[in-house]
Amino acid sequence: MKQIHFYKYQGTGNDFVIMDNREGQYDWLTDEQVHELCDRRFGIGADGLMLLNKSEAYDFAMKYYNADGREGTMCGNGGRCLVAFAHKMGVGNGSFSFIAVDGPHEATIDGDAWVNLKMQDVHDVEHGSMYYYLNTGSPHFVKFVDDVQAIDVFDEGRKIRYNERFAAVGTNVNFVQPYENGIFVRTYERGVEDETYSCGTGVTAAALTFAGKEETHYSIPVQTLGGQLEVKFDKTGERTFENIWLCGPATLVFEGQLNIR
Fold it and tell me: What residue spans define the domains of the chain?
């Protein structure tokens, strides 16, 4: 048996198990063990697991695993939660630079719970007759609907995620409806293989596709099942976006110790 010390964080209901691995003390974790820790009935329960790793060139390095135990692509809400955790661990001074699987990121923290995360620029958006497809650190299929609350996200999202085009690698699927002065987004996440309460790279993708035709600065409020986020960005061309920031809460839920085989 081996003992782990873990922290549970959430960002608008997107929840994560986090461990401080700056000394490499959890390098022995297997994909199967990650999957067991994320299990909501037999483990801690989470949409994913992250390791705060040491980096020589940045404040820290982010390693992210999906709930299925496989190492994942970029997770926006996960990145924000890891920044909040790093701050709690005494890393940085309120401004951060870190490296993730999709490259370097910057972040700032306001107080103890509001994190602003700079995402990668987007220079390519596929626009079909009834959808958008783009990569915001993870691949996202975006579909605008008339009544997002009425959508069966699990069934409809699963059909797209496992269709002929996406089955091999998978995609996240977002259903979006204009809402007040912004948008309401619900997401089926690959790796979780279910709807999550929020998806950071998903709401980022949805906000970019919601932007008007003008090439200017946007600040778009986003409602999710788990709460409110804001996406700020510059539209620099018909399908190009830069200076993209995902902003929202990231809070500690609890911490504990657990023995695992």
Answer: 2-119+250-260, 125-246
Per-residue pLDDT tens digits for 31-85: 999 999 999 999 999 999 999 999 999 999 999 999 999 999 999 999 999 999 9
- With 0-12 / 13-18 / 19 or more C-beta atoms within 10 angstroms meaning exposed / middle / buried, residue 132 is buried
pLDDT in tens, 143-196: 999 999 999 999 999 999 999 999 999 999 999 999 989 999 999 999 999 999
How do strand 194-196 and strand 182-189 relate by DSSP bridges? antiparallel
- According to CATH, the topology of domain 125-246 is Diaminopimelate Epimerase; Chain A, domain 1 (3.10.310)
The tokens for 167 are 């089955």
CATH of 2-119+250-260, one of 3.10.310.10, 3.30.830.10, 3.40.50.1980, 3.30.70.20: 3.10.310.10
Task: Note the pLDDT of residue 261.
Answer: 82
The model's confidence at residue 128, banded by pLDDT at 50, 70 and 90, is very high
Residues acting as catalytic residues: 75, 199
Pairwise CA distance, residues 71 & 93, whole Å: 29
Residues 6+ apart with CB under 8 A from 168: none
Tally of CA atoms within 13 A in the half-sphere of 102 that contains its CB = 20
What totals of helices (H) and strands (E) does the chain contain, helices first?
4, 17
Q: Are 186 and 224 in contact (CB under 8 A)?
A: yes
Angle, helix 76-88 to helix 200-210, in steps of 10 degrees = 130
